[in-house]
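thread: overnight batch results

M.L. [08:02]
morning all. the overnight job finished for the chain we discussed friday. pasting input first so we're all looking at the same thing
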Amino acid sequence: MKIDRYSETILRELKSDGRLSNVELAHKIGLSPSATLRRVQELERSGVIKGYRAILDPGKQGIAFVAYVMVGLSDHSKGSQQQFEQRIDRANEVSECHNVTGSCEFLLRVETEDLAAYKRFHTDVLGEIPQVSSIVTLVVMDSPKDSR
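M.L. [08:03]
and the structure it wrote out:
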C-alpha cells in the first residue's frame, strides 16, 4: 500500500488519539468521512494499523518500579533464544521484550509494584531460566518523554 500525505496524516492523528471518530478524523485531514473511512479500513487491512490500545497510568495500577533489563544468554542458538522467549512471555512483569544486538541478546521492560517485587522477579523468574548468563538492570528514575 502506498502511503500518501492523507494516509500519513491519518496515521499521525490516530497515533495521537486512537479514539477519534471518523467524522473528527475526516475534518482534521480535509477529506470526506466516507473517503477517510475507506483509507482507515485499507490501512487496517494492509496491516499498517495493527490495532488500537488504551494508554494506562502505571502508578494508578500499583506499578511504582520500572526497569530496563539487559539479559545475556550462555547459549546463542535459535532454540535457546526461543526457550527464553517462551519463559518471558509467561512473565506478567515483562511489558516489552526485544531481541537486540550488542553485549546482550535481550532487552526487557519490567514493571513491578516496588523494588522487593522486582527482586522476586529477578530471582524467581530470570534466575530460574537456564540460558541466562548475565543480567544488567537499569532503573527508570523518570520518563520525560514516553510516546509508546
